[in-house]
Every structure is written in structure tokens, then in C-alpha cells.
Write a structure and sequence with these properties.
By secondary structure, the protein is mainly alpha-helical. It has a single domain, classed as Orthogonal Bundle (Helix Hairpins), CATH 1.10.287.70. The protein is built from 4 helices and 2 strands; from the N terminus they run ααβαβα. It has helices spanning 2-32, 37-68, 82-94, 108-140; strands spanning 74-77, 102-105. Strands 1-2 form a two-stranded antiparallel sheet. Helix 1 runs parallel beside helix 4 and helix 2 (37-68) runs antiparallel to helix 4. The longest helix is centred in the C-terminal third of the chain and has 33 residues, at 108-140. It is elongated and about 55 Å long.
């Protein structure tokens, strides 16, 4: 369980740092761009989505390492290929969608729970960031 706890902490910190840096750079980019406000918002949304995908891949790597290197828990259900299963599982967990066709077992469930919480916080952070940027653009018009 200690390995899972340490790996979970590292993954959450990495995801938060990636998100912070992505939003910081997006904010700077959106202010530099001399394009229409709608296009500027689209750039922000696409950039934020790219950050979320990177964060999902960070968690997928964590699942892969814990399962196939450390042998801490496993994924069960409709499995096809180890890396793709980890990525797919991470997408459904991060977004808290959770189809249920793949399930984590053992101590790996702790990482799953923390990924859900992290995903919810980072998605909310993106929503508030985009709201502030849209308010700023609308105030100018």
C-alpha cells in the first residue's frame, strides 16, 4: 500500500503542476493573440483539453507502472492491450464517467479514487479559468 500511496502522491502533484503551467501559459497566450474573441476562447478551450489529456496520460502511466512493474493490483474486465487499457481506464476515471467495463482491484483502487478527485478539481479549475477569461473578453466588447 505504501508504494501506491507514494505513486499516487507523485501523480497528483505532477497533474496539478502540469495544469498550473498549462493555464498560466494559456493565459499569457490568450492575451498576446490579436485574434477575434471567439477564436481566442477556442484556443483556450483546446489548450485546456490538451492539458487534461496529458494529465490523463500521466495517470495512465502510473496505472501501468503499478500493475506491470510493481504488481500492485490489477485491472479486470474487458481488457485488450495493457497500455491502451490503462489509458482508457484513466480517461473514464479522470472524467468520473466510470463505465464499469474495467475495474481496478487491490491497492490500485486508492489511485483510482484520487484520480477521480483530482480530475474533478482540475476540470473545475479549467471551468473557472475559462469563465474569468470570457468575462474579461466580454467586458471589452
Amino acid at each position: 500500500m505504501l508504494i501506491t500511496l507514494v505513486m499516487t502522491t507523485v501523480l497528483v502533484v505532477m497533474a496539478v503542476l502540469v495544469h498550473y503551467e498549462a493555464l498560466l501559459r494559456l493565459m499569457a497566450l490568450m492575451r498576446l493573440l490579436r485574434i477575434r474573441p471567439r477564436t481566442r476562447i477556442a484556443v483556450g478551450v483546446l489548450g485546456a483539453l490538451a492539458a487534461h489529456v496529458i494529465e490523463i496520460f500521466i495517470f495512465a502511466l502510473g496505472y501501468y507502472l503499478l500493475i506491470h512493474v510493481q504488481r500492485v493490483g490489477e485491472l479486470t474486465g474487458s481488457l485488450t492491450e495493457p497500455w491502451r487499457d490503462c489509458v482508457y481506464f484513466s480517461f473514464s476515471v479522470y472524467s468520473s464517467l466510470g463505465f464499469g467495463d474495467i475495474i481496478a482491484t487491490g491497492p490500485l483502487r486508492f489511485l483510482t479514487g484520487m484520480e477521480v478527485l483530482t480530475g474533478l478539481v482540475l476540470i473545475a479549475w479549467t471551468a473557472s479559468f475559462m469563465y474569468v477569461e470570457m468575462q474579461r473578453l466580454w467586458a471589452r466588447e
